[in-house]
Amino acid sequence: MDYVLRQGANIQPASKPAALDLQGFFAPKSLALVGATEDRSRFGGKVLHRLKHFGFNGPFYPINPSAQTVQGLPCFSSLRDLPESAEHVGIAVPTKFIFDVLDDCAATGVRFVTVFSAGFTEAGDTEGLERQSRLKAFVDKTGIRVMGPNCNGFVNFVEGLAFTSSGTVTGARSAPGNIGLVSQSGGAAQVNVMWRAQELGLNLSRQVSCGNCADLGVLDFVSYMVDDPHTDVIMVLVEDFGRGRELFEVAKRAADREKPIIVLKLGRTEAGSRAAASHTGAITGSDAVHDAVFKQCGIIRVNDCNELYERAMMFRRKKLPNGRRAAALSISGGNAAIIADLGEHLGVEWPRYADSTQAGLAKILPLHGRATNPSDVTSAVVGKPDVLRNCVDIIAADPNIDVVIPTLTFAVRSDVDQAVASIETCEKPLVLLWTGGCGDQPDFKARQLIQAGVPVYRDALACLRSVKDAMSYGEFLRARKGREVVRRPQGIDLKQAGLILRNNAGVLGERESKAFLKAYGFPVTEEYLAKAAAEAVAIYRRIRGRVALKIESKQILHKTESGAMRLGIEGAENIARAFDEVIGAARSYAPDAALDGVLVQAMAPAGAIELILGIAPDPTFGSAIMVGLGGVHVEVLRDVSFRVGPIGIDDAHSMLRELRAYRLLEGVRGQKPVDMAALCGLISRLSWLAVDFADEIDELDINPLFVYPQGQAPCVIDALVTTRQRVAAT
Amino acid sequence: MDYVLRQGANIQPASKPAALDLQGFFAPKSLALVGATEDRSRFGGKVLHRLKHFGFNGPFYPINPSAQTVQGLPCFSSLRDLPESAEHVGIAVPTKFIFDVLDDCAATGVRFVTVFSAGFTEAGDTEGLERQSRLKAFVDKTGIRVMGPNCNGFVNFVEGLAFTSSGTVTGARSAPGNIGLVSQSGGAAQVNVMWRAQELGLNLSRQVSCGNCADLGVLDFVSYMVDDPHTDVIMVLVEDFGRGRELFEVAKRAADREKPIIVLKLGRTEAGSRAAASHTGAITGSDAVHDAVFKQCGIIRVNDCNELYERAMMFRRKKLPNGRRAAALSISGGNAAIIADLGEHLGVEWPRYADSTQAGLAKILPLHGRATNPSDVTSAVVGKPDVLRNCVDIIAADPNIDVVIPTLTFAVRSDVDQAVASIETCEKPLVLLWTGGCGDQPDFKARQLIQAGVPVYRDALACLRSVKDAMSYGEFLRARKGREVVRRPQGIDLKQAGLILRNNAGVLGERESKAFLKAYGFPVTEEYLAKAAAEAVAIYRRIRGRVALKIESKQILHKTESGAMRLGIEGAENIARAFDEVIGAARSYAPDAALDGVLVQAMAPAGAIELILGIAPDPTFGSAIMVGLGGVHVEVLRDVSFRVGPIGIDDAHSMLRELRAYRLLEGVRGQKPVDMAALCGLISRLSWLAVDFADEIDELDINPLFVYPQGQAPCVIDALVTTRQRVAAT
User: Fold this and answer.
1) Strand bridging mode A69-70 / A88-91
2) Is B460 within 8 Å of chain A by CB?
3) Considering only alpha carbons, which residue of chain A is nearest residue B329?
4) In angstroms, rounded to a whole number, what is the distance separating the alpha carbons of residues B301 and B264?
5) Closest CA relative to residue A206, chosen from A188, A214, A194, A196
6) Which of A447, A497, B8, B73 is 20 to 30 A distant from A708 in Cα terms?
7) A635 and chain B: CB distance < 8 Å anywhere?
8) Taking 80 as the threshold, does the pLDDT of residue A728 lie above it?
């Protein structure tokens, strides 16, 4: 059942043209609204009202069969009666009429449709699901691109068009900014993000609320904004990306253009997923995997709506710090301490100033000894704007400093102006933290500065989080420039691997799983299947050394639990006895199981560190790979790390570094470090396997993988592969 | 050196009268300001200006030897010239004149002094330290109580007195609220907290910026507010509590009165400690220990200034949730999903509604199936305030629900009013989350509601964090009612333990440390010291079973490293050989070490879980106890938990539950749980030991402690005690 849902989420139109042109969507040559009404308390009346007051340059046609005029505009009874074809049509009619209107759209050469009306998957009933399928079929047949259903339209501040019922857009168009916003949600995005951002003084380029995403999805609009010259920062509030794999491609293009994508992903928790599902019928997918993908793609993740625009305020200036080294200065010592704490906690560094900086500061400040960073510049600078500005400029010129945060509490206007002057002229990114008001001009507020383009924060944590995210994004962009090309590893026998998989539909036992992995280039234990005790002894002699004996049966997957295994056996007699014991234990554990024999396996050398590697299915991204240390680390401490493949050696290493137990791999208490290159190579290999066999493999567990210090090859000790056929059958 | 600092922090006036009466401090019968000036750009001029405009009812005397009048008020040349004794005197004069003014205070019967002037410990130089000592000596000699130095005074909204230079108090007194604020900092507290809270619509009772705390400290003012009938919530922004042990007493009285204390503690990180030290010369102490103490005391900890008043907004109504079960309802599905996510992440529960609630909702909402929680009530309620209010009231009446969060985005005034009506009338705590504006009355804002006493949040995370903290505080208050009395454990031979400690000044070796712990009631391994091989054999025969042999020498503390130990030996011949080997290894590891003999020790039974227990010194609280699992858990994963003693069994258990590896103690993979009662008993015992020998013991390590399933006693395998004499000597 679980799988059916997941599969459902995977069944998405597989590929779209790389650069879908949505210009006609956002700024159509002509526009129509079916369901336009006089009554402004109804949806169609609201949309019409917003549209009229916001201002739209092109011809606009209200459609309503039972009115001559609506809100003072001449009204048409049907799309078929229009003097020209509408490029974009909005539909705000009762659910039962939608498909009639869509037929009219197809008949009159409409290119884009926004279906505002609800009654689709979000309803959670059969009719809703059927309606949404029918809508998809309409898109496939006609080529008309549809936003929605169950959506609240969009606002285009650039060319000028509000096509939404939202109460946040009741007046004339405000000036466009360079921040875009894409969401499935209406209210949360339009109120909590768009309106609140504008209240703060931040202007947007475009805003989209795309609802259930039957056709056009979140990624289509993000992709458009990546190409949009009017948008420099993209905020996304998303329940379900849908075609998750496309996210990699869109994010890559965004990184090429150095346009940050900031995401608030809903459905992180079970309660959130439930709420999201009842909202747009979205399947939200595993949160840990989303986290991993965002890291891989350089996407900035936030936790609440206000954080979207708080980050955007930092990013919209397109000045990124060259490193993590920050400086702050304040006339309030308490603020210096708060900033120091929060910054260090987030991973911001506060380096010592260079000697030249100290010398410069000593000339203008009454310093006792060296200035610390963050700097308490004391009240010596209050009301002496030239001193404040000089301090900021001296610190900003320090070669050890990547970003400066002048911090004001209560300030006179001239202090604020001088801090802003430094911010505006400096090559480096500077942000103003202004926690209080303006002493001599109480009406002068942060909002005016923000509207003028200055990044101004009122709270230290929001400020430092934004600074830290800008540092991380800068690091991401720099790292990807020198980054390895992720290449398919050598030594993969794809044909053989595929053969093993297809010959063993369902679950692959230990021996078959390891044979599969071996064909894929993984080192595995030497092992052979014995059908009789004598054969076990012969194998033992061939292997030379102590062996393990394990039952081989498709019906006994949990060998430890069954007791049908013996470890570290030597001597012919003991081997023979162990063979009989294993068979005996298997029979009493599962009397009806078909026993294929006993696997006789070379014991791996001692001194290994045990890891667990795996592939897990994911509803959004197809599958994800996982790594963790064996024993308590995965099972009790849940200390694991995810990625979506394929990944290279660098990514594999960063995946390991995320583990809390990473230091164990580096060697503690005098132990040698493990062969990190070999381990990362296997992780990369696994990530390719996950991609190559995405359609065949549901889950794969390597448990344990033994890794050793350099010079000793790692070894797969046990493994289990579950294919999709098996899952589909249950 | 490190210790000298710590000791310095400990040297504080040890005990004060339990209820220090500061009424004369906050509302003196008469007030004087030495250093009052005409010039409003100077400190004394600012203080005078604030005071005049804020309004003070009693007689006020500006003092300035070189002026006849200041700011229109008659001026006196000295305190000695006043017609009456000033109950409270503020000093804002250059540092060199301070002590002359203080002499005048002593001569004229002044009770309280606020020293605004700087130039003390915060300067970081010898003169500053000396000045602060001299100020303390003045207090001890005269009994005059002093706030400061290096402080920015206080604001009393209740009786009406602003005695501060802060630019946040330039007009007439605003109405008093029931929220108090104590800080060392001036700017951060007065601007980031007080002014910002007022900007939001929250009024304060009193605000104090007590600076370096040479005499009156943060805890004195918190203590006063605990008793103050005008204060119901206490916000604290603190760098150093000073006499940390008093915090327990003050917090206990606050809990008795159900007055929450909300703390922003500076100096959490190294950078923050550095910045705090340069601000008020404070030593900030270990952050993990502060965290533990706050948990023990029910103190709510926050991370940034705005979070102080955001929490206070929730608490000032004095309605606490009876549990963690919340409900939320919104017309925005996106908001419902965001709230669900953030709440679950914080530990808020979203239970299913009772059948009666479902039935009630079904009558007024167009529901498909059951309503989820958080509830997306769709736009059916928009503009129908009776429906919204009915929904809120039905949900609030649900017996499964402890707190309700009606959530509005853009709303018409009548919607807001109806939500507020529910909040005002409901017995349970309800909070409004209102992310947008007022559709029909754009000037109607959250501020008006907050001023009227309604808790209104604009962001989901701030809202849910406040709700969660209220839940936790309610839990804390309920738990302490039924809580065990923390009693001294049985079986402590204090005399014997003290004797061992004093006979072994410096470091106690393994044998002495274990003898000390045994006298304190800890089960330890059976062991005896052998001076010769034959004696070792005799001991082995007495112990019966395998033994360990370990070198005993004050000069060899790291036995594993020295190689001078053998484990699990049996047979007389092997014992004798092992004895010689241990002596040999010790001699080659440390040729000059004095060898006391070889410790022959019973091997503990197999199957133990290893723990590490310890006592670490703390600059604020004297010492703290620590517990963690042995091996990688403490050493690599830093998975440890702290408390300040004495604690009982319940606290010991909660300490263990904080460990990420706690499940290992409960038994995983079919293992039996450890004897939790025995383990918690030992932790409690250790916490008493830490208190009893606070002056003698610097550090104590029990590493490892073996614990077993019920029926098998735990056992101290190795231990090491470092006394303060040893530390003082290095």
Assistant:
1) unpaired
2) yes
3) A275
4) 6
5) A194
6) A497
7) yes
8) no
Chosen for mutation from B341, B407, B465, B637 (greatest number of chain A CBs closer than 10 Å) is B341
In the predicted structure, residue B2 carries a pLDDT above the cut 60: no
Cβ contact (<8 Å) for A663 and B636?
Answer: yes
Pick from A366, A183, A359: which is nearest to A282 by CA? A183
Three-class SS of A401-419: CCEEEEEECCECHHHHHHH
Secondary structure of residue B262 in the 3-state scheme? strand
- pTM for the whole thing? 0.93
pLDDT value at residue A123: 85
Enumerate the residues of chain B whose CB falls inside 8 A of the CB of residue A94.
none
B117: nearest Cα among B81, B93, B135, B145? B93
| Of residues A641, A640, A645, A656, the one with CA closest to residue A621 | A645
- The CA distance from A147 to A90, in Å, is 9
Interface subset of A 264-293, CB within 8 angstroms of B: 264, 266-272, 274-276, 278-280
Residue A16's pLDDT is 45
Distances (CA, A) of B687 to A64, B63, B290, B651: 79, 53, 16, 11
Pick from A273-287, A443-457, B417-431: least confident:
A273-287
CB B459 within 8 A of CB A306: yes
Statement: residue B94 has pLDDT above 50: yes
* pLDDT above 90: percentage of residues in chain B: 81
The one-letter code for the residue type at A583 is I
What value does the mean pLDDT take over residues B605-610? Answer: 93
Q: Tokens 């010291």 map to which residue? A: B529
Q: Which residue of B has its CA nearest to A196?
A: B436
Q: What ipTM does the predicted assembly reach? A: 0.93
Tell me whether A444 touches chain B (CB under 8 Å).
no
CB-CB neighbors (< 8 A) of B195 in chain A: 410, 436-437
Are the beta carbons of B341 and A266 separated by less than 8 Å? yes
Residue B458 CB neighbour total at 10 angstroms: 20
3-class state of residue A601 by DSSP: strand
Chain B residues near residue A123 by CB distance under 8 angstroms: 368
Alpha-carbon gap, residue B632 to A721, rounded angstroms: 31
Q: What SS3 class is residue A5?
A: helix
Q: HSE-up of A52 (CA within 13 Å, CB side)?
A: 17
Q: Considering only the beta carbons, identify the residue of B350, B436, B661 that sits closest to A271.
A: B350
* Cβ partners under 8 Å of residue B391, min gap 6: B329, B361, B364, B365, B375, B377, B381
Grouping H, G, I as helix, E, B as strand and the rest as coil, residue B602 is strand
Report pLDDT digits (tens) over A385-426: 788 899 999 999 999 999 999 999 999 999 999 999 999 999
Whether the Cβ atoms of residue A185 and residue A148 lie closer than 8 Å to each other: no
Which pair of structure tokens corresponds to residue B627?
A: 């517990």
- Three-state secondary structure call for residue B579: helix
Mutate to test the interface with A, among B151, B194, B346, B632 (most CBs of A within 10 A): B632
Closest CA to B456 of B316, B575, B574: B316
The sign one gets for the Cα dihedral A647, A650, A655, A656 is positive
For every residue of B52-80, DSSP letters joined together read: HHH---S-EEEE-TT-SEETTEE-BS-GG
* Residue corresponding to tokens 């401090």: B25
**Tokens standing for residue B432:** 């409004």
The residue of A47, A192, A208, A465 whose CB has the most chain B CBs within 10 angstroms, and thus the best one to mutate to test that interface, is A192
SS3 content of chain B, % helix, strand, coil (to 5): 40, 20, 40
Cα separation of B120 and B149, whole Å?
Answer: 7
B481 touches A: beta carbon within 8 Å: no
